[in-house]
């Protein structure tokens, strides 16, 4: 077995990168990630909480990857163990958080919507996930109101996880929403990363095979 390349990590988005959007990871992708871990350190960074990431990548996710960064890295696991946390409540304090919730509720109240379904504000450790139309809406309805979707402090996008990766001089990030305004853009565009845009899990495998698993002549 080839030795891991020191100082290099391959970091992956979840939806559209390791899985089809909002779908469960395939056995083939799990097998591929096992092979990839033999040659490079592998991490996952997702905006969702660990429960949702586990639903997509499996209950053993924190042991299947070297690093797992839930909520953009606000809940960080390394080698299966929790080693970093931050929360919106701790960062803002109770009063400022209440003020923010009031503003969000007013935004929902005034939003131009024709139908509402389910939960309107999802309180995660590091963000308020706001949906004026309700989080039980269809994907098409969700896309229409995506501009309202996430509220978090500046710098709490996916680049937040990079503070835990100072030991790596070469950080490759793979994501599908790498365009400006997409939730992968900031980390893709960061000076600390080598960004790779993928179009599907199959494309992720193809690009990683070429970069890391093909012997250079």
TrEMBL record:
The keyword Oxidoreductase does not apply. It catalyses: alpha-D-mannose 1-phosphate = D-mannose 6-phosphate. Pathway: Nucleotide-sugar biosynthesis; GDP-alpha-D-mannose biosynthesis; alpha-D-mannose 1-phosphate from D-fructose 6-phosphate: step 2/2. The keyword Membrane does not apply. One of its GO terms (molecular function) is phosphomannomutase activity. Mg(2+) binds at residues 13, 15, 176, 188, 193. One of its GO terms (biological process) is GDP-mannose biosynthetic process. Its main location: cytoplasm. This is Phosphomannomutase. It comes from Camellia sinensis var. sinensis. The lineage of its organism: Eukaryota, Viridiplantae, Streptophyta, Embryophyta, Tracheophyta.
């Amino acid at each position: 077995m080839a030795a891991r390349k020191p100082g290099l990590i391959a970091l992956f988005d979840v939806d559209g990168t390791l899985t089809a959007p909002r779908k469960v990871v395939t056995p083939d992708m799990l097998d591929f990630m096992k092979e990839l871990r033999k040659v490079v350190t592998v991490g996952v960074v997702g905006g969702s909480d660990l429960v949702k990431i586990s639903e997509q990548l499996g209950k053993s996710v924190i042991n299947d990857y070297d690093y797992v960064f839930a909520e953009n890295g606000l809940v960080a696991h390394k080698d299966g163990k929790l080693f970093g946390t931050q929360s919106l409540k701790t960062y803002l304090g109770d009063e400022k958080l209440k003020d923010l919730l009031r503003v969000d509720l007013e935004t929902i109240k005034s939003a131009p919507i024709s139908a509402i379904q389910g939960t309107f504000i999802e309180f995660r450790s590091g963000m308020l996930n706001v949906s004026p139309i309700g989080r039980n809406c269809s994907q098409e309805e969700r896309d229409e109101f995506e501009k309202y979707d996430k509220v978090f402090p500046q710098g709490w996008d996916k680049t937040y996880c990079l503070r835990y990766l100072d030991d790596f001089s070469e950080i490759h990030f793979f994501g599908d929403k790498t365009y400006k305004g997409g939730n992968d853009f900031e980390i893709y565009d960061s000076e600390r990363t080598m960004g790779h845009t993928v179009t599907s899990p199959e494309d992720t495998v193809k690009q990683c095979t070429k970069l890391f698993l093909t012997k250079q002549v």
